[in-house]
Amino acid sequence: MEAAIIAEVTAEPGLRILGTEEKKTMRRYRIAAIPADGIGPEVIDAGLEVLDALAGRVGFALDVDRYDWGSARYRRTGAMMPDDGVTQLRGADAIYFGAVGAPDIPDAITLWGLRLAIAQGMDQFANIRPTRILPGVASPLRDVAPADLDWLIIRENSEGEYAGQGGRSHRGFPEEVATEVAIFTRAGVERIMRYAFAEAQRRPAKHLTVVTKSNAQRYGLVLWDEVATLVARDYPDVIWDKELVDAMTVRMVRRPASIDTVVATNLHADILTDLAAALAGSIGVAPTANIDPSRRFPSMFEPIHGSAFDITGKGIANPVGALWTASLMLEHLGEHEAAAVLMAAIEQVCAAGIVTPDLGGRATTREVARAVADALRGVNRPGG
Ligand code: ATP
Q1: Are 158 and 94 part of one and the same domain?
Q2: Is ligand 1 within 6 A of the CB of residue 317?
Q3: Measured from the CB, is residue 191 less than 6 Å from ligand 1?
Q4: Quick one: which of 58, 292, 330, 355 is 20 to 30 A from 219 by CA?
Q5: 108 pocket-lining for ligand 1 (C-beta < 6 Å)
Q6: Structural domain containing residue 85
Q7: Which atom of ligand 1 is nearest to 101's Cα?
Q8: CATH of the domain at 238
Q9: What's the chain look like in SS3?
Q10: What is the pLDDT of residues 121-166, one digit of tens each?
Q11: Are 228 and 341 within one domain?
């Protein structure tokens, strides 16, 4: 793979430099960066370096506030973030999040104390996860061409199995009981269905698969199906079908080209998107966005992967998930051209074989970030 490192990045996605007058009228965005745990800081640093290369060259600037929230803070203070953390973030235009989780702290504390507290506290009810096979990345699926796997998976992000309802009684006694209650509200299901149908409508295939499990889960998931049928009437140009979640895993592997846009519950989509990321080549390239479509609150953008303790500090974390995530963030901010140019630069660097070991390459996190930043600056760079 030595060739991977010496591959050349052409100047194609390079952006012109703005003049002084143009700089005065720049659009400014306040970004709250929360790198948090594990490889989070490594990939967020890579993302900020690349965003810095972009900003100033197109008509926007970013003011980045960095928050030290996460597991280290929990060890120091007993809380992942301050009590008024969600309020502090309200002034941001977007949140750029790394990863959360530590080997010595239960996930229930780290996840609920930070990521879920922000996502639910800001009613970011639509979690979107685009999945594609990037150029130069091999899917573990035999005979699958990039055009066969181009999905947008939409996860309900505010209730369902992760509504946080339940409890434990008779703690420590043999008769101990624990409940984990999945909550499906008509309003909650309807808003995610409307969001999913609208997203499907925007894509060329105009096709939506509603993932369900209403054969076994006879209340919440039956409501889920009923609401899908009602909402579908308002989107007559969207072709839609229903798939049981277990059958969906088989379809993703056997017939990926039959899938376009997908909507699933909080838990189902959590699992399906890890599978999707693996089928697209690596969990390290997958992005996600937690969206509040009403824009009352800032939305949160993060790579799909977690803390990945096994590679933390080694400098080999794949930053592509965080970079693609940055492109989603720019898209959400309305910077469509910058988002597209960033995506083109990422694809160019992947195609040139400048990739980290999880994709079979030998580049480091920083080398990949630098290659993308150089491509954005229009610098020809003989890699490495
Ligand atoms: P969590 O429990 O917080 O979801 P985790 O560390 O158990 O996180 P993931 O982060 O999802 O699990 O990753 C699983 C494995 O995939 C990691 O242990 C790591 O080897 C690999 N991995 C994840 N992200 C990356 C990345 N960005 N670059 C390279 N390898 C990665």
Answers
A1: no
A2: yes
A3: no
A4: 292
A5: no
A6: 1-125+294-384
A7: 3
A8: 3.40.718.10
A9: CHHHHHCCECCCCCCCCCCHHHHHCCEEEEEEEEEECCCHHHHHHHHHHHHHHHCCCCCEEEEEEECCCCHHHHHHHCCCCCCCHHHHHCCCCEEEEEECCECCECHHHHHHHHHHHHHHHCCCCEEEEEEECCCCCCCCCCCCCHHHCEEEEEEECCCEEEEEEEEEECCCCCCCEEEEEEECCHHHHHHHHHHHHHHHHHCCCCEEEEEECCCCCCCHHHHHHHHHHHHHCCCCCCEEEEEEHHHHHHHHHHCHHHCCEEEECHHHHHHHHHHHHHHCCCHHHCEEEEECCCCCCCEEEEECCCCCHHHCCCCCCCCHHHHHHHHHHHHHCCCHHHHHHHHHHHHHHHHCCCCCHHHCCCCCHHHHHHHHHHHHHCCCECCC
A10: 999 999 999 999 999 898 999 989 888 999 999 999 999 999 989 9
A11: no
